[in-house]
Design a protein that fits this description.
There is one protein chain. With 89 residues, the protein is mainly α. The chain has one domain. Helices cover 62% and strands 0% of the residues. The chain is globular and about 35 Å long. The protein starts with a helix and ends with a helix. The relative contact order is 0.18.
Length: 89
């Protein structure tokens, strides 16, 4: 990752209270679900989560998760926690 990406990851880590290493794995794997879960945990909008998927994790356009409507996230809170647990555990 370049310096700008490292800066974004560090910020996400602080906001979401998720380790830099876990977020790094999510990005390396281009895991759309993981990016969305980190954004949710960081209290960042789903709209911005879409941008993170494209710009930070290079998720292919066909795999990007989008807002199902009205700024909502596509998963329940419990599902988001489970997604993050995979990378944090």
């Amino acid at each position: 990752m370049d310096d700008e990406s490292n800066f974004v990851v560090a910020g996400l880590s602080l906001l979401a209270k998720v380790s830099v290493e876990a977020i790094g794995r999510i990005i390396v794997e281009a895991d759309a679900e993981g990016v969305v879960a980190v954004a949710w945990k960081a209290r960042i909008s789903m709209r911005f989560a879409v941008k993170l998927q494209f710009c930070l994790a290079n998720v292919p356009a066909t795999k990007v998760l989008r807002d199902p409507g009205f700024g909502e996230f596509p998963f329940l809170d419990e599902e988001m926690e489970e997604i993050l647990a995979v990378y944090s555990g």
